[in-house]
Structure formats: structure tokens, C-alpha cells
Write a structure and sequence with these properties.
With 402 residues, the chain is α+β, with helices and mostly antiparallel strands. The chain folds into 3 domains: 111 residues, Acyl-CoA dehydrogenase/oxidase, N-terminal domain (Butyryl-Coa Dehydrogenase, subunit A, domain 1), CATH 1.10.540; 109 residues, Butyryl-CoA Dehydrogenase, subunit A, domain 2; 161 residues, Butyryl-CoA Dehydrogenase, subunit A, domain 3 (Up-down Bundle). It contains 12 helices and 10 strands. It has a 4-stranded mixed β-sheet. Strands 2-3-7-6 form a 4-stranded antiparallel β-sheet, covered by helices on one side. It is globular and about 80 Å long.
């Protein structure tokens, strides 16, 4: 039996989120956030009150215990409301990486950071990318050396989402580094890094071209002491924890892109119904209609893939029906297709709008700038997704990156 319907609870959840976002995140507010380069604290607190922040973690830890289909619905709605995807980044980084941190964390980390982040009073992020690269996790330079029952860490991370917010809200990051380089990727350990800890220096705030309302920066770790209770999970298992985080984030990134693309189409359709050229609305011309049909068909196909993949992830965690590798293949397909579809949608619809589409009065340029980050590499570059898809299709004997 195949059932493509959402549960009644999920439908009500979507309606509630869309209604709340329509009141608290209008396109005018998105533009203001983009211009001021910040998300209002009242909005962040509201997300916490709505149960949107870290909604995937158990209720006893401050979350909502939501499944991945429900988390995907929220990501789609966040992208629909904020086409710059800055708000979606704030949401999805915590829903995905916060889930991994919470699953592995001690009670100390949960009490001091995770529960606060779920209330909108802190921020839980991911510190993966280094100056030498990001998708090649095994190529990290960050190192951990034993220090009693804990570690001393030295290393540097860059292009990290939310560094300014984390510093202001006393948050922290999932970070990994080598404790035994001789073992390759099997010699890495994860830990939770409070961003305001002694020895941590925020090195730079990057001036991105898009998603301006959430910061992107870097931080350097110099002889940072990591006590035992701040280690995440087992020693030398960081590579696998990192892949788990990437997988969850790629699902939610894809959903936010589909949501933004849908809002873009709606803005474009409204415009073409009103704009008259040569005696009739633009929407009556086949050039517009064929373009629209192409984008709608691709969008619906990708959206179906995303929700199938969310269902697979739930089956993996709840019943062990699918393996991590089976899910990774589908998650990479989502992450490869959705951002490029969204970027293409914004580009084509902006053509419909003519000169208006090239102005700041038109909101679509915010979407094009924001979505570009997902095409370039946030949560994994496009070619990395192709490698994963091909590897899991051909078989691992045929990969060139063994």
C-alpha cells in the first residue's frame, strides 16, 4: 500500500506555521531583515514559543519530538515565507545538527545550551568547513590531544553559519577533529564547542552576497580545553556523526529551496496576470505558460522526492527499514536537484518581470542571492552529491575516492 497523504496532525501543523509566519515574516519584514543583516530577537523567541527550534529533539530535552516529515514541512514553510532563506538557515541548522548534538550530548550540554536554544535563547550550529575545504571531512586539520579525561583542541573553522548570533546568545557548535591521524577518518572525535569559551576567537565575518539576515564567520581554537562531558558520542566516531548531520541538513535545505521556489512562482504568476503587453496579460502568452509548466512539473517531482526521502529517514530511525547509505543516496539527490531547481526558477521568473525584476523593489533578487549559497556548497557542494549518488548506484568498488 502506498499512501501519499500527510497525517491530520501534519496538515494542522503546516496551517499553523504558515499562519504564524504570514503574520510575523512578511516579504516586507524579510526585506528589512536582509537590509539590516539580522533576524529580530522577537522573531527568534517567537520561533521558540511556536516549538519550531530544535523541534526534532525529544520533549524532555526541550524539543517537540517531531519526525523528519514534520521537520521537512516546517523547512518548506520557512523557505516559502523567507525567500532569502536566512530564517530557514537559522531553523534547519538547529533542527538537523541540533538533533545530532542532542542525541550524543551529556546532561551538562543539554541543560546549558540545548534547552536554551530550543526556547530561542541560544544557538546550536555546525562548525565543519576549514580554510582548506569543507566537504572533505577526512581532510580536516583540527587536532585533539588528550588532557586528563578530556582534550585540548587546536584548529580553525570558516564559512560557519551564525557565528555572530552564537556569540551574542552564548551558543555553541558541533565540531570534529583528529585524535589519531594515523587511523584516517576513523581517528576523529566530535565535541560541543561553546563559542564564548576561553581560547576561541571569532576571526572574521564574511560579507555574503545573500541570506544576509544570518551571519557567516570563522573561528580559531587555540589550546581550547574540552572537558569529558563536552565530548559528543564515542571517541573516534566523529566521521559518522558528521555524515549523519549532513544527511539531515541536506533534507531540510532541499525543502526550504522548494518552498522558496513555490513562493517565487506565485509572485511571478500574480505579476503576469496583471501586466498587460500588446493588449493582453502576459499570463496568456504561451512563452510564459510553457515556462511555467516546466517549472511546476520539475518542482512537483523534486518535492515528491524530498518527502519520500523524509519518510525514508523516519523509517531508518524508527524501524531500521533503510540503511544510512540508502538514505544518503536519496538525500544527495534532493540536495543536488532542489537548490538548482530553485535558482533556475528565480532566474526565469525574474525574466518575466522585466525591468522590475532587476530592482530592489522586487523581492526575488533576495531569493536568487540566498539560494545560490546552497548551489555553491552549503551542506555539501553539487559535485559531492554526484559522487555520493554515483557511488551508491554503481557500488563502492567503482568509486575513485576510496
Amino acid at each position: 500500500m502506498i499512501d501519499f497523504s500527510f497525517t491530520e496532525e501534519q496538515d494542522l501543523f503546516r496551517e499553523a506555521i504558515r499562519e504564524w509566519l504570514s503574520k510575523n515574516l512578511s516579504l516586507e519584514q524579510v526585506r528589512e531583515n536582509d537590509t539590516k543583516h539580522e533576524l529580530p530577537k522577537s522573531f527568534i523567541k517567537g520561533m521558540g514559543d511556536m516549538g519550531l527550534l530544535l523541534l526534532t529533539i525529544p520533549e524532555e530535552d526541550g524539543g517537540s519530538g517531531a519526525d523528519w516529515v514534520t521537520a521537512t514541512i516546517a523547512a518548506e514553510e520557512m523557505g516559502y515565507a523567507d525567500i532569502s532563506v536566512a530564517s530557514a538557515v537559522f531553523y534547519l541548522v538547529q533542527a538537523s545538527w541540533g538533533y545530532v548534538v542532542n542525541r550524543l550530548a551529556s546532561d551538562v550540554v543539554k541543560e546549558n545550551y540545548i534547552k536554551k536554544a530550543a526556547r530561542g535563547e541560544s544557538f546550536i550550529g555546525i562548525g565543519v568547513t576549514e580554510p582548506g575545504g569543507g566537504s572533505d571531512v577526512a581532510g580536516f586539520k583540527t587536532e585533539l590531544k588528550p588532557d586528563g579525561d578530556g582534550w585540548v583542541v587546536n584548529g580553525e573553522k570558516c564559512y560557519i553559519s551564525g557565528t555572530a548570533e552564537a556569540a551574542e546568545m552564548d551558543g555553541g557548535y558541533f565540531v570534529s577533529g583528529y585524535n589519531d591521524r594515523s587511523k584516517g577518518h576513523r581517528g576523529m572525535t566530535s565535541f560541543f564547542l561553546p563559542i564564548n569559551q576561553e581560547g576561541v576567537e571569532i576571526t572574521k565575518r564574511f560579507e555574503n552576497m545573500g541570506r544576509m539576515a544570518i551571519s557567516t564567520g570563522g573561528f580559531k581554537m587555540t589550546d581550547v580545553k574540552v572537558p569529558k562531558e563536552y565530548q559528543l558520542g564515542e571517541t573516534s566516531r566523529a566521521f559518522y556523526y558528521t555524515m549523519e548531520g549532513f544527511d539531515a541538513a541536506r533534507l531540510l535545505v532541499s525543502a526550504s529551496c522548494v518552498g522558496a521556489a513555490q513562493r517565487c512562482l506565485e509572485i511571478g504568476m500574480d505579476y503576469t496576470k496583471e501586466r498587460v503587453a500588446f493588449g493582453q496579460p502576459l499570463a496568456k502568452y504561451q512563452g510564459i505558460q510553457f515556462d511555467l509548466a516546466d517549472m511546476v512539473a520539475h518542482g512537483e517531482a523534486i518535492k515528491s522526492l524530498i518527502y519520500k526521502t523524509a519518510w525514508m529517514l523516519d523509517q531508518k530511525y524508527q524501524h531500521g527499514t533503510f540503511s544510512a547509505l540508502e538514505c544518503s543516496k536519496y538525500l544527495s539527490m534532493c540536495k543536488y536537484l532542489a537548490p538548482h531547481h530553485a535558482l533556475d526558477t528565480f532566474r526565469r521568473v525574474m525574466y518575466w518581470l522585466g525591468a522590475y525584476g532587476y530592482t530592489h523593489e522586487c523581492p526575488l533578487e533576495m531569493g536568487m542571492r540566498g539560494i545560490m549559497s546552497y548551489c555553491i556548497g552549503a551542506e555539501g557542494a553539487a559535485n559531492i552529491q554526484k559522487i555520493v549518488i554515483a557511488r551508491e548506484t554503481l557500488g563502492r568498488d567503482w568509486t575513485s575516492t576510496r
